[in-house]
Every structure is written in structure tokens, then in C-alpha cells.
Amino acid sequence: MKIFVSFTLWLLLGSVSANESTDCQQTFPQDIYAALREMTASLVQLKADMRLQTQEQVQQKTEVEKLKTELEKLNKQQLEQAAQQKTEVDKQKQQQIVQQVAFTASLVVAGETTLGPLASDTTLIYKHVTTNIGNAYNSNTGVFTAPVRGAYNFEWWVGAHGDNSHASCAVLVKNSEKISMAWEQQNHHFGIASNGATLLLQVGDVVFVRQGANCLVYDNENHHTTFSGHLLFPM
């Protein structure tokens, strides 16, 4: 194979004239060198362009990552602000609800009852709740619990049929302190006693009404015996 290629080249070279051979020897290397220089310059330029393009892509990627980070940060801040605003709104609503306190209740829901005379003071449990804004009054215990520090006004009414021996009476109690009594005695017919008081209460203070010892308390569907209270203003 090598002999065949060598022979072919020898024939080709033999077919070229001396002048043509000399011209080729003069022009061919120059063209090659020019082409090589041009290709080298092109490769250098291409390499530089590729390097620049790579740097731009890296820079663009960095900018995209930076923008993404900033966007995530802004989203997080917006979510935190929205959560904080919701918390503030809920707090304001809760404060507004807490500051709306009022109730009225009477002793019996239906029918009639006479309580007493009893040997000791006994807490009255007012079962018929007409109003209980703020749910501070408990109809299972008869106790009002202050939801907010402030000034409260209370009124209580107690009725009984006179029997010539027992009065109708009830005492307003704050925590364990007796505040004031409503007292009425009728020898005959029906009598009602009432009283009222304004109290400064702390959160959690309790207020209730006790039937006085040896006293009578009566109520029916007309709701003679009642307990009412409301928040005048918070403090």
C-alpha cells in the first residue's frame, strides 16, 4: 500500500513542470501561513467571545438568583406583615368584644318557685337569661366573672309574698365581700326589694347574689327576682 501511494505521488510530481513546481513552492507556504494566522486569530476571537458569553451567562444567573432571593424575602416580609396585621385586627376585635358586657337574668324559666327560709346565705342561680353579651354571666352557677378591668354597675330585685314573719332579701357579693342588701318585709300581699351598686372590678373578680338567711325569695313567669349588670367603662 505504501509503495502504491509513493508511486502515485511520484507520477504527480513528474507531471508538474519545473516552473509550476517553483511557483507552488513560493505561493503555497505563504497561503498556508496566512490561512493559519487567520484561523488562529479567529479561534482566539471565538475563545474570547465564548469566555465573554460565559461570563455574561454567569452574571445573568447571579442576577436571577439575587432577584429570586429578593423576591422570596419580599414575599416573606409581606406574609409576616399580613400575619401581624391579622393579629392586630383580631386583638382589636377581641378587645372590642370584651368591652361589650351586659347581662340580665331571672330566677326561673317557667312555672313558679318559693325559696326559703334557709338557715344560711345561699347563692341564687338565675336560670332564665334574657341578655348575656360577652358571656360573662354563668347560668349554671349564678356567678358573673369580670372579663376586663373596669367599672361595672349591678342591680338586683327580689320578691316574696308577705307571711308576717319572713322578709324578702338578697345580698350582692364581690368575691367574698358583702356589698349591699336588698330587703323588704310585707305582712300581707306581695313585696319586692331592690338595690344597685357600682363596683371597680379586676379581671377575674366574681360577683353574685346570695339569698339572705331566714328570708323568702319568690319568682314566676313574670320574672320578679332578677340580677343584672353591665360594664360602664374599662379602666
TrEMBL record:
Protein name according to UniProt: Complement C1q-like protein 4
SMART domains cross-referenced by the UniProt entry: C1Q
Signal peptide limits: 1-18
Source species, domain of life: Eukaryota
Subcellular locations according to the entry: Secreted
Keywords from the named record: Coiled coil, Secreted, Signal
Matches recorded under SUPFAM superfamilies: TNF-like (SSF49842)
Zinc among keywords: no
InterPro entries given in the database record: C1q_dom (IPR001073), Cerebellin_Synaptic_Org (IPR050822), Tumour_necrosis_fac-like_dom (IPR008983)
Main location: secreted
Domain C1q, chain residue ranges per copy: 96-235
GO cellular component, one term: extracellular region
Coiled-coil features, chain-numbered ranges: 36-96
Species whose genome carries this gene: Sander lucioperca (Pike-perch)
Keyword Glycoprotein set for record: no
